[in-house]
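Lab notebook, entry 413. We have the chain sequence and a SMILES string for zinc ion, and the next step in the workflow is to get a structural model of the bound complex before anyone spends time on docking refinements. Request logged below.

Task: model protein plus zinc ion, output structure tokens.
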Amino acid sequence: MNVNPKRTIAELKELRALTSDENGAQRVAWTDTWLKAREWFAAKVKQLPVEQHYDAAGNNWVTLPGASRKSLLIGGHLDSVPNGGWLDGALDVLAGLEVLRRIASEFRGQPPVTVRLVDWADEEGARFGRSLLGSSAFAGTHSIEADRGRTDRDGVRLEDALRRCGVEIDHFPDASKEQKDAAAYIELHIEQGPVLEHMDLPLGVVLGTKGVERHIITFHGQEAHSGSTPMNARRDALAAAAKLALEIRPIAKKHADAVCTMGSVKTFPGIVTAVVGRCEVTLDQRDLDASVLAQMYREAQEASQRFAAEENCTVNWSRLWNIEPIKFHPHLLDLCEQAVRETSGNSHRMPSGPLHDAAEVSRAGIPTVMMFVQSLKGISHNKIEDTKEEHLEMSIAALDCLASKTFAWLLDS
Ligand SMILES: [Zn+2]
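Result returned:
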């Protein structure tokens, strides 16, 4: 028996009709619409010879027990951002369901290796600003203390929103029990960027997720009257920041896949009649190679000192957040490349700029790989997010092919 990708696309449309409005998908984690999506999914799963339970962090595990307890994990997330697209996360889960159906039928309910489909809780972090919540609990990288005080826009506490869905934040560490017997993890996702479309390729192999350095940089100069202060007497903090905004481009462009973004600029006092005395900017730098990331960080620091000096200002840096690059498993990368090539005739290896649950699974030491399918115009987190149906069908077949190859590898090893 083969997978039936047309069924998956029909189910994606069913889910969209159930959980979207005129602005897009509304499956924000820990809300009623998200629970409705999960209920809908549970009904689909019931038709299979599987065991289903929610772990201590609210991740939904669907297990098809095999002759060996050694497990192949397939994952995704049903949650979305507000006004999100129909494919981000949901494609992964429903393609995984189709692969599970194929394996259950092929082995008459008892495959040689256990297969587990997981719907991660709160991948997006859209409501409380904490992404990869469920998968980080699974990986044991989650810090309860860091998240306990979080609230949403309406002042609802994370802890209380979770409790309403039957999840106690204090029990989060128990989710790592699900790591037991996990031998490999695979995930299909839309690319959410323009690279595959530009290369005219339907599918890509994801090398890993880029490491991130995220900082607030503050330039200090001198507030002064815009009329009375001669140009050569100014200590203009914005001028120094503006030079840095341009300099991060050549810093990034030395490396093929590196990116640097200055996403926010605040000026003080921020009025039309004053030279800027203080300027706060943010810098987000990403690359798959830790040494490239470190080099870009160093170069941006040096440049900021230089521009501060040129403008008679001072500068200081404060780190907002960082994460190391996570590289996926070399043998699984090869298997993924074979699966992509056999399905679509072509393949391309690329890093992922966005983080994914797969990164957390990989941090737990479980061999992991991801596959991307092309996104039209590279747009995601938006209701116009889309992928050609022929590419969606191909991606489901390729995930199934990767599952078979991974299965054979697990039986051998
Ligand atoms: Zn996603």
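Notes for the group: Residues 389-412 form the longest helix (24 residues). Worth checking against the assay data. The radius of gyration is 24 Å.
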